[in-house]
Amino acid sequence: MAEHLTPTRDEVVAFHTAYFRPGRAIVTVVGDITAATVKPTIDRALAAWAAGGEKPAFSYPPVPDRRPTTIYLVDKPGAAQSTFSLGHSGPPRTTADYFALQVMNRILGGQFQSRLNANIREEKGYSYGVNSAFSFGKGPGPFRAGGDIVSAKSDAALVEFMKELRGMGGSRPVTDEELTTAKDGMIQRLPDQFASVGATNGAITGLLVQGLPEDYYQQYAKNVSAVTRDDVLRVAKQYIDLDHLAIVIVGDRATIEAPLKATNIAPIAVLDIEGNPKASQEN
Fold first, then answer.
1. Are both 87 and 143 inside the same structural domain?
2. From edge to edge, which strands make up the β-sheet containing 141-150?
3. Of 34, 58, 82, which residue constitutes the final position of a domain?
């Protein structure tokens, strides 16, 4: 039976009491305004919020041990397409490999001309778009690759996903052109972080929340440019674990189970739409 973690009201109240207090607050204001002008407004708005309180500490629990690569087939009878999500746990935002991982991921699936999209969408026509990403936070975050796939091509698409993941690990070396395109794309997108008042506010807040250095954006282009092909290969090998992938596919079991099994990529665990195990074969 799938585990459902539903907090009680008392647990929600306790969480709010512990974490929603002034010692944890960050207020950022961006606009045609000065600090001296905006401070009274903020003081009035937060007047009812009791002063004091240290920033509460939080320790992220250890990441569970990864399981051997398994296809988790979630049965959605009659589904017109299959939705793929392949991944496992990834590093926190504080990893020293952040820039190398971002460059590597852009080549793999983080930009329109990525390997995954060029293969599965543009060349094969199995999808309207596939991608990959690392979700960085203060604690561990997931690595995920996936997208929506034509049901009849679920097996073929999975083969291509695995091929491209394997390729990043060295079976298909990254070219100078791919490296340059990925790094240029990251650097050229930097102005978007400050293209509006809201975007500028988000960029500044991100520095504070993630504990990044004040000159992060001044050093951004330099840090991206420093990434080498060897860096990309190293982080691909280190952070994409083909032997311990959770491959979640939601689709019409009657249509896609047998072809997926025939790929011999991984054993299949069949789940219902609620995530509960189902028998491996229908009676």
1. yes
2. 130-134, 141-150, 81-90, 246-251, 70-75, 268-271
3. 58
Read off the pLDDT of residues 75-126 as tens digits, 9 standing for 90 and up: 999 999 999 999 999 999 999 999 999 999 999 999 999 999 999 999 999 9
Residues 44 and 108 in one domain: no
Structural domain for 227, as ranges? 70-271
Against a cut of 0.85, is the pTM above it? yes
Q: What are the tens digits of pLDDT across the range 222-255? A: 999 999 999 999 999 999 999 999 999 999 999 9
In the chain, the number of structural domains is 2
Residue type, 162: M
Alpha helices in the chain (DSSP H): 9-19, 35-45, 98-105, 115-116, 154-166, 176-188, 197-210, 216-225, 229-239, 253-262
Is the domain of 202 the same as that of 232? yes
